[in-house]
Amino acid sequence: MIDSRLAPYGALGLRVALGLMFIAHAYLKLVIFTPAGFTGFLGQVGLPGFLAWPIILAELLGGLAILLGFYGRYVSLALVPLLLGALMVHAPNGWVFNAPNGGWEYPAFLALAAFAHALIGDGALALKPTRLAGEGRPAIA
């Protein structure tokens, strides 16, 4: 059973955590790894280097949109393929995050969290909450 009084705040918590995570990863690629370093990493794992900036911008702008609740559930859904790509890159490294080049569990969790956010909704305090077609109608029992 869903607690309709508190569920919007649970969705807010998920949205804030997911948005901050995307922003933090964009920051990591910009400041710590640097765009040139991230481009080199993409080349090492067999991906084209020109994807570096689109990935960084998707994480930064997408994270801001999710954090603010500006069409957040659509943005989360749009970022799931990015997370699945990260999962494919990290899958050969093993399960644990402290494996060299990072493990697969974190991108897998984030992909599921982004998908859950898209299903659950933006929650409380969203600037531009989004509703899916048919949302708000009573469920058929």
From TrEMBL:
It is found in: Cell membrane. Its main location: membrane. Pfam families: DoxX. It is a multi-pass membrane protein. Keywords: Cell membrane, Membrane, Transmembrane, Transmembrane helix. It comes from the Bacteria. InterPro entries: DoxX, DoxX-like_oxidoreductase. The chain crosses the membrane at residues 12-38, 50-70, 77-96, 108-127. GO terms for cellular component: plasma membrane. Belongs to the DoxX family. This is Oxidoreductase. It comes from Bosea thiooxidans.
